[in-house]
Each structure stands twice: as C-alpha cells, then as structure tokens.
User: Fold this.
Amino acid sequence: MQLPKVKIEQKILLLFILVAIVPLLITNFVWLTISQNQILNNTSTLVREAASQGQLETSDFLKNKLVSLIVYSQTLPVRTKDIPNTTSELQNYIAQDPDIQDLILLDKNGNELVHVSRDKVYPVSQLKNDANDPSFKVPNFGGGEKYVSPVSIDAAGDQQVTLSIPIIISHNLPNIEDMNTSAIGTFRNSNEIAGVLEEKTELASLWKQLSTIKIDNSGYIYVVDENGKLIFSPKTPTANNASTVLNKKEVAAFVNSLPSTSSTPEPVANSVDNQGKQVLTTYSQVLLTQWGIIARVPISDALSSVRQVEIFGIVLFLVMLIFITIISLGLAKNITTPIHILAAGAKQFGQGNFQSKVLINTRDELEDLASTFNDMAKNLQQAFARLNESNKKIAFERNKADLVLYNMTEAIIALDEKRNIVLFNTVAEKLTGYSQQEAIGKPIESIISLYEQDKPITANVYAPETSSDTAPAASEMFSKLQIQLQTNRGHKLPVRLTSVILHKNESSDITYILTIHDLTEELNLEKMKLDFVSIAAHELRTPLTIIRNYMSVFREENIAKLNNEQNMFLDNISRGVEQLTFLINNILDVTNIEKHNIKLHPVSVNWVGLVKQTVTDISPTAKSRNIMLVFQDSPTDLPHVIADEMKIHEVLANLIDNAIKYTPEGGRVMVSLEKQDDKIITHVKDSGIGIPEDARSHLFTKFYRVSSELAAGAKGTGLGLYIAKSIVELHHGEIWVDSVEGKGSTFSFSLPADKV
Assistant:
C-alpha cells in the first residue's frame, strides 16, 4: 500500500518536534534507566554483602566453638581420661562460654565418662551410652571428621546445635599452640581416636548478631537448613522456625545447589515472591554446615525515589512539546520555498543536466548550499574521469599486495571488526587444512582453535573487540612465542602467534592481522640440540670421574714421593677437573630446565636458619678475600617458606658467591630478609663494581658474563644466574637486580611464605 504524500511544511514541523523532543525523551529514559540500574546494582551489592556477612558471622561462630573444643580435647586430663581433672576442666570451660549448655566426654565405645551441664555434673548412675548417636558415630567412625548436628529445640524451648570432635592421640599431632580446625578432618585410623568430646551450644547469641544485619529499610537475612526448613528469621518467632519454606524460589535454589563447597554468595536474582512482590535475593552456604544464608529486599522499596523523577519527566515533556510546536510552525514556512528550488535543481542534476543553475538569495546556509550545487555540477565530470583512473591504480596495487601476501612463508589471516575472516593466504590453508573458500567470511574461532598448555585461547584475547578505536595506526596487541594450533584434522601444531590491530579506516574493512609461524621444525631442531648436549655431557662425566678417582688414588699412594712443584701440577689438574665437572653439571641442569625435567620437593623450610647457616659456611671464602660477609636480622619474626631446600640453597649460595667474586678487597656483602604480603624477599647486597645498564637485561640469560676487570679474574660458566632464575620461577617466585655502576648491586628473589 502506497503511503499518502505529506507536505514538506508538515515534515519540517514534525522534524523540529522530533529533534527537540526525542533527545529529551531519550535523555529522560536513559537517565531513569541508569538511575534505576544504579540503585538496583547498589542494592544488589548490599544484598550480597549482607549474605556474605551473615555467612562469615555464622561460620566464625561455629568455627570458634570447634577450635575451642579441639583445644580442650588435647588437654592432658581429657586425653588420659583423668575423670576428676577432666570434670574440673569442662566446668571451667562451660563457665567461660554462656552459649554452652552441656559438655560430654565419651570413650571409644560411646560411653559417657563425664557429663557437665551449666547447672550440674551428672553422677555416674545418670551417664549413658551414646554409641548410636551421630554426634558420636561421625567423629569416631568417620576417620576423624568433625560433626555439626541439625538445629534442635532444648527443654527450655531454645534452639541449640550439637558439636563434636574426635580426641586424637596420634604422635604426629601438632602442639596445642599450632592447633586449628584443619587438624580435625584429616583421616585417622581407629587406633588414633581415643574418644569423642561433645558440646551442646545455644544459638541465641548468633541469631542476635544476624538480626542486626539490615539491607536498606526493609531487607533482611534468614537461615535455612539443607531441607529448606527455616532455622532463623528476624520476621518469625523462634517457636515457628521449623516450617519448610521451599516454596520460596531462593530457598529452593539453595537446596538444589547442594552439596556445595563454596561459601561465596551467588549472583543476586530478581524474582517474584509468594505475595507477588518483586524482590532481590541471593544465598550463601555456611562453612562447616549445609545451612544457607538467604538475603532478600523488595525492589519496590529500593526504587521508590525513582518514581518521583518519572512524574517530573512527564510534566517537562508536555511543556516542551507545546513550546516546540509553536516555534516550528513559524520557521517551517521560511524554509520550504528555498527547499523547493533546491529540489528542482537536484532533479536537473539527477538527469545529467550539469549546465542548470540553482538560484537562491536567502543570505544563509541555503544560499551556500545552492552555490555548492552549482560548483558540484562543474566538477562532477572531472571527478568521474579521476575516479576511473584511481580505480585502475587501486586494482593494480591490490594485485601486488595479494601477490606478496599469498607467497609469504608465514600464515597471514586478516579479520574485520566482527572478527570474521577477510583474507586467508596459501600458508594459512596449508597450516589449518581449510581452503580459502571455506574460511573467508567465517568467524575466526570456527576455523582455528588455539591452546596454551591445553587451555583454549579465545578470540577476545588475541583480537579484543573494543581496542581499535583508540589504537594507533598499527599496534601489536598479542604475541605468544609458543602455543598450539589445532588443524581441521585434529592435530595440534606448535606455532608462534602475533596479532596486530589496525585503526579503523573507511577504505578497508581489515581490523586485525594475525601472523602465525609454524614452529614444528624449529622445535625438532632445538630438541636435537638439547639431546646432543645432554648425551655429550653425560659421556664426559665418566672419563672425568675416572680421572678424578685415579688422581686421588695416585696422590694418596705417592704423596711422600712428590716434590712441591709436582704437587702444584696435581693441584692444577684437580682444579681443572673440578671446574670441568662443575661446567658439565651446569650444562645438565640447563638441559633439564629446558626439557622441564626438574622435579621439586617443596617442604616448609626455616629460611632464616638456612640463610644464616649459608652465610656462616661461605664466610671463610669471604675472609680469604678480605671481604666482610654479614647477615642482617629482620626486626620481626619471619615465617617459613615453601621450597625445595637443596635447590633453593644452591640459588642463595650462587648469589652470595657471585657477590664476593665481584666485590674488591675490603668490600662488604650483606644478606637480609623481609616479608612483603605473602612472600619472603631475600636480598644479597654488595659494595662491588656494579653492573652496566646495557648488561642488566642479559644477566639471567645462558652463558652471559659481565665484562669488567674483576670479572676477568673470576672463573664461571655464565650459567649460574640462568639456573637461579629458573629454579626461583619453578617455586612461583621472582628474581631481579638493582645496581648502580661503581657502587654495587643488590640481587633479590622472592619465595612463597608458609601460611601455616
């Protein structure tokens, strides 16, 4: 159906109204939307924080109770079943904690040995057997597991929970000062469990804490168990907290998520409750239990302030509509006449009549537009001729570029801003197994799959969507020396990938250029080199060992027959053998590093003690060169580190030895330690000759040695720092150097601290 014609005056009127009103509408809409989203986001954050706070307070409450129970379980009277002293200990414990109602000591068969309540000590005649109670079974037969019971109601009508832990008698049990809940839960043999210590504790103080957690004015948190039963709610009396609330979506979602090992609150959900109200909810599982902390707040309360803004926006829109209508009616008539003239002139130009002239005398932009029309007609014919010539040149240049790209030795893939393939050269076809016809126009991830250590690399990594607007004309966005590319036959090839993002250009639809180089032959050659070096080094070890052994035997048998000069010759031979052996061992270490054959045996190491001992061991060498070697104690106690003691000792000894070698006589070498976050930093500082700035970037590479007067006299392989760097990085640490030429250097490395 053909639409009726509309006069230009009416269109101008409509245009003015749209130009003025639509931005206002859009602005109001965007403003309201942003305000509403911001309020919802802020409220969602409050909901998650409330759930997280509730989870933390509940977990800390139970954890503190368990830790105290563990400490009392390892006291001498409890472990030795000294009934009188145990009774006294438990009476003292129950007096200190107002939440605890009962403490019970059970032997290995479930018989009560001691039962202390808040108001009495049960006589022997009232003690019973709890062998069938889960509070005994789980710790005793569960291999050392702690137990937290479901919530129950005591005789006074108060909610309580039963906690129990095994009494461990293992010789490997840590000291009481080091006890924590991780000691309980470790699998124990039956001969390591002497019984069970049980505590019945009320939850009123916990609920009082949780009642203080508010979300805005009407939001709150409540607690349910794994069956969806209500345990606590500030809106419901305790006596009624046994009803099932599975009909609430957030509770059903929590129950369905079990079992779970995460205590992090789930993303906030927007749902409708049983009364038809929209609410924001989330839930978080309490550690040590399968309780859920549910946080909720009505959306209507959060958005009440936005409703007033909406009313103001509607009134403003109506006032602006009336004002713009009046103004646009007056302007429409003055504009339409010149437009009719321009339309007639455009019609002439459209018919190819470039001699026609558009005459308008309005002394404004419309007159300028008419003049532009006339100039355009004059230049169009010349432009058509130049356009044809330019098309020929562009086609020629494109042919040259295609010839270069399709004959390169590397795979070249060009992508548009949507990451669809627009160019796919011959090498890319051979490398991936896909033809150009199959690849062009397809998303890049449907053609190539990239992996780094078997982890997929997505297109967002090497071709980020939002970076080309601010990128320079060509900038490298991603470069990986060795990753894997999966072909269409499922084979994985080692490749080097470099991606470049281009600034947006209207003359080209290319946004990303990927360069992929096949490393298969290079890696095979490198493996052959490493195998050769490894075989050669192993083969050299045997004759060197024979020479060293024969030298030792010869010297022992002929020591009395040799003069000083002959002994000097033998010393020189021995030193040469040792140096060559050291070099071969270093080469083998480098080979093992590059083949990833080094196995670490990390343990908790007393790093302060090891550093002190190393400084003491190397001190004679420093004294022989008239160099002061000192260890600076840390002002605070430092934790142990997690490391392979032998290998990390080699790193420290190498750095101290280097500092002594490159420090002139009379100098000073200082070793110090400090703690930064969860790492221990070791510094080896010397007052030596320093390191030239241009040499620092090469220090940790293979076979590199700094050229200097002291270096010329210092024997070495140039492999020590490379090996040290590799060993430190295997420990998930870092190594670096700070140096001022002529004043000395400080080599530093970090190791992860033991968190226990």
